[in-house]
Amino acid sequence: NFKRQLPTKWVTFACQLTLIGMMSFNYPPTALMFFAPLAMFDYDTALYLWISVGVFGFVAVMQMLIKNWLVTIIACGSPLFLWGLATGQTGLISAAILVAGYLVRERGNPFLAGLVFGCLIFKPHMALALPFCFIATRDWKVILGGIASAISIIIMSYCIFGAEAWVEFFASFSDNSSYNLMVKSQLYERIPSIFVTALGFFHTLTLAISMHVIGSLLAIAVCIHIWRTSNDHFAKLTCLFITPALISPYFFDYDLASVGILFGLLLLETIRKKQLDWHFIALLGIWLMGISIFTTRLNGLSLGPVFLIGLMIYAILRTREENHEK
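^ that's the sequence the OP posted. Answer follows.
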């Protein structure tokens, strides 16, 4: 229905991506603003362009952040980056947008940073941490920029694709996402959220919802605390990357490609210190998080949230260490 009712010329590529494999097309029409230009090319060319954009964006922002080509290249061999690349999904692009916005803000241009962050309206749940971070730090220009950017993209998508695109999206998203969250679906094991893990382990919906709400509130509290008190790039980026996965019950493993950035930061830190301390354990944990995607299908049952919560705890410890040194 989605394919038939939208302008076929512009959404052919997006629909082809949906029809390959078993994943439903759960992106809002704002995503079509990014996908539609690829319909001008044949499928193979469009696919290579899409992958190239994700890889180039990811590598570019990582290099701007860590400023070490050797570490950047090694980090691109991390399992989470490779999984994001292999799936051909939006994880690498989302990571690039988050880091690009972060870097622009750090360089003293908050409104432009907000404009960059607003591009995540094509995948809104990836931006769930942003309001808490920038309200906590009173970065109102970032918030205004994000709102302006997001609204502009929404209006453009409405003008180009029409109201039907939005009607179809809301009609299909609820059913598709609800099914994927159920233990009997084919995709639930790829959703490393607290809700899916609790549901798979306890088989009680009320308990799963309760545990997820508690976990989400704690993640938000940690996020606000770190952004208020820390200047550590790793800790703050951990909040941007991990908090959405703990807030949203619907979060796929390929969206953790952004954690590859954290791997690069920790690897550089370990090399500079020339010693294996407790930070190396966190580096190993990030690697194992990616390996678990390939070696088991238990992400949604146990391993996913364990690693995510572990990284948040590590971010808190780094913040405490930083504040103690002050």
